[in-house]
């Protein structure tokens, strides 16, 4: 039975309104007795990833990406913090490999579990889905990472055939709009306890 605090983190609408996590992810977080603050964080990043995916499908319909995998990845990217709870309020990267291993041990396919590792270690060899999750994990709190965003621009430019500057300006505009609601998402996350 999930704690009332975890249940609230999974179901509170939030301000701005946050989409719910996929049912299978919510069930897994409940089974693992995840910290409420982690559930709130995952909801915030998942919601931003949904907005990014919607924009990509509308603005770049020729870009082939696995929307379901990307949204799953955003919903579980920090799940290793159920093990390394100290990383909920402090720095650390031990949760990345631990999250991957935890997901695989729970029967999640390794290809979908990879987001626990790739969300913070992006590079040129990751897919559009991985970049989408990484960007969402930064911009939800209004953090902009030029190198990361440029990797996504480069992928979208190649796939769409649009000029790089045009892709950059459109993505920059979207990320500015998403970042404008960061205070609400940060307040939502902070309103849920680390333990509960």
TrEMBL record:
Residues 40-139 form the HD domain. Keywords: Hydrolase. GO terms for molecular function: hydrolase activity. This is Phosphohydrolase. InterPro entries: HD_domain (IPR006674). Pfam families: HD.
